[in-house]
C-alpha cells in the first residue's frame, strides 16, 4: 500500500466540473463530505469554466487549449494543484496541461498565442507550474492507502465492488498514471476500506456515454453489457470515478435494461460515496438517496437499513 506523511497539509484548487453541480449533485456533496472527514482542504475554483468534455477540439484545438489553460491558470494563481473528481475532466484538462508543457519546450509560438488570448480577456497566463490530479489519485498517492485504512470506522466487509474506471482516466493523457490495460488503483482502494474488488472485462472500457446522443441504442447496449458482466461476476455495486459514466450506468439504467431486455438493478456509486461509507458518514451526507437505481441493497448489505436514522428512500 502507498503511504503518505502529507495528510495533515493537503490542499487543492478544486475543479468540480459541470455534471457534479447539476445532474450528479451527490458527487459534489460526497466529495466535500470525505474531504472534510479526511482533513483535505478544497478551495473551489468558482470562476472555472466547463472543460468541454472533449467536444471543443472538434471545432478548434486552440479553443480547448485556451479554455483549459485558463482553468489551470486559476489553480496556478493559488499555487496549488488542480483537483477534479471527474475522469473526463481529468483527461481533457490533464491532456491540455501536457500539451502546453510540451509547447513550452517545442512550440513557444503556440503557447504565446494561447496566453495572448487569455490576456485579451484579462486572465492570468498559463505557466505550467502545477499539476492536474483526479480525486482517486489524491486518495491513493497523496493521502495514502494505509492512512485511509486507519480512518475506516465502518466495516464494508462482504461488500463486492466492481470498478468502472472510464476512458479518460486511463487513456486521456500521454503519460498514464497507471497501467491503462490493467489498472489496480480502485481495487486497491476498495481493499483499503474493507470491501472486496470484483474483476470483470468491461471495467476498463467505454460506458457508451460519448455516443449516446446520436447512437443511443448502441450506447445503451455497451452500458448494458458492462452491467450484465458485473452482475454475473457477483458485484453488489459498481463504483465509478466519472459522473458521465454514472449518468449512463445509473441514471439511464432503466432505459438500458429495456434495450438489453434483461433486468439489471445494479447500484452505481460515485467513488467518494464508497469511501464516505467506510469513514462512517451517513447515506444522507453522501447523497445516496439521489440515485435512479436504488442504493438500498448496498445499505442492507452493510446493515444500515436496520438503523432508522440511516434509512433512506430512493
TrEMBL record:
Pfam hit, one: CCG
Superkingdom of origin organism: Bacteria
Keywords: Coiled coil, Oxidoreductase
Keyword DNA repair attached: no
Domain Cysteine-rich: 12-93, 162-250
InterPro entries, sorted: Cys_rich_dom, HdrB/HdrD_reductase
Coiled coil: 93-120
Database matches in PANTHER family: COB--COM HETERODISULFIDE REDUCTASE SUBUNIT B 1 (PTHR42947:SF1)
Identification of the protein by name: CoB--CoM heterodisulfide reductase iron-sulfur subunit B family protein
Organism, as annotated: Roseofilum halophilum BLCC-M91
